[in-house]
């Protein structure tokens, strides 16, 4: 079963396929730029496909 209880965005990205890391970081930076006042949730529940 794939892990779904990631404690951070970094942990989620690290669990994704290596070839997606750069793009995921780009998306993360775009969100920070477009929504600088947005707050991260303390629990991140993201699903990744196996």
Features:
single chain; about 50 residues; mainly alpha; about 40% helix; flat
Please sum up the structure shown:
Helix content is 42%, strand content 0%. It is an all-alpha fold. The N and C termini lie close together (9 Å).
Mean pLDDT figure:
80
Q: How many separate helices?
A: 2
From the N-terminal CA to the C-terminal CA, the straight-line distance is 9 Å
Largest sheet: none
Helix content: 40-55%
Rg over CA atoms, rounded to whole Å, is 12 Å
Judged by helices, strands and strand pairing, the structural class is mainly alpha
Stretches where pLDDT is under 50 for at least 5 consecutive residues are none
State which percent range the strand residues make up: under 5%
Number of strands: 0
Silhouette? flat
Helix-strand topology string: HH
Count of domain modules: 1
């Amino acid at each position: 079963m794939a892990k779904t209880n990631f404690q951070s965005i970094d942990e989620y990205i690290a669990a994704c396929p290596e070839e997606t890391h750069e793009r995921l970081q780009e998306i993360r930076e775009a969100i920070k730029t477009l929504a600088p006042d947005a707050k991260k949730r303390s629990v991140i529940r993201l699903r990744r496909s196996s």
